[in-house]
Amino acid sequence: MSAYEKFVRDRITQLRLQKGISEYQLSYDLGHSRGYIYNITSGKSLPPLTELFSICEYFELTPSEFFDDRTSQPELIHKAIEGLKELNDSDILLILNHINRLQQG
Predict the structure, then answer these.
(1) Which of 28, 69, 82, 96 sits between 20 and 30 A of 34, alpha carbons compared?
(2) Spatial separation of the C-alpha atoms in residues 9 and 40, rounded to whole Å
(3) Residues 29-70: pLDDT tens digits?
(4) How far apart are CA 69 and CA 54, in angstroms?
């Protein structure tokens, strides 16, 4: 198994657990048989690209967010970015100042 295959399997499991749903529920929600996600996460198969896009949509992620391994909570980052888009420039600067302060320790 390549590192990329393992990443896809682990990422689907991570996102599923963060959402608090079972493999069966995710399979069902994606329109597949109950063992579909199990077969992916257990290493028996990989999703085709179109299905990977469906998984990204299900978790409200872009493919680049799915593959960004620096982000353990991509849904939260996505929601934060969407919220930032609604703010004016001075509010965004205020938030950036808070982020900088938190990063400094």
Answers:
(1) 69
(2) 6
(3) 999 999 999 999 999 999 999 999 999 999 988 898 899 878
(4) 19
Find where tokens 């929601």 sit. Answer: 79
For 104, half-sphere exposure in the C-beta direction (CA atoms, 13 angstrom radius) is: 6
Rounded distance, CA 12 to CA 16, Å? 6
- End-to-end CA distance of the chain: give it in Å, rounded: 39
Q: Which two tokens stand for residue 26?
A: 């995710």
Instruction: Write down the pTM of the prediction.
Output: 0.74
Q: What are the φ and ψ backbone dihedral angles of 56, each rounded to 5 degrees?
A: -60, -45
Rounded to whole angstroms, the Cα distance separating 2 from 64 reads: 19
Burial class (CB in 10 A: 0-12, 13-18, 19+), 76: exposed
The CA distances from residue 7 to 10, 44, 100, in Å, are 5, 14, 30
